[in-house]
Amino acid sequence: MKITKIDLTETIHTMGETTEDEAEFFVDYLRNELADEYPEAEINVTLNNRQSSTVINVETEDGWDETDARDEVHEFINTAWDKCPWENYEEGKIA
Q1: Is residue 13 helix, strand or coil?
Q2: Cα 53–Cα 57–Cα 58 angle in degrees, nearest 5
Q3: Into how many domains does the chain fold?
Q4: Is 28 exposed, middle or buried (0-12, 13-18, 19+ CB in 10 A)?
Q5: What number is the average pLDDT over the span 62-84?
Q6: Is 90 helix (H, G, I), strand (E, B) or coil?
Q7: Residues sharing a CB contact under 8 Å with residue 88, sequence separation 6 or more, in sequence order
Q8: CB–CB of 64/3 below 8 Å?
Q9: Average pLDDT over every residue of 70-92
């Protein structure tokens, strides 16, 4: 079973005291991490500061329940925040 598409709209409102530049850095990092974790999936990650919460949509193959797949992606995103290489932010490097 696999995820074939991930559409994620992040919002700065879920990132605490994060600046817009820091949020963009995280979104770029997250896009790369999702592509590494789900290499067969089409990945679309955007930042939209007009909404109040993160929106995750997924498409799957082989009968995998999309709710379960969305939960898996959501958990991945939650752990990605702590793994983000914030030490590279000042240098403008993503990885």
Answers
A1: helix
A2: 150
A3: 1
A4: middle
A5: 89
A6: coil
A7: 94, 95
A8: yes
A9: 87
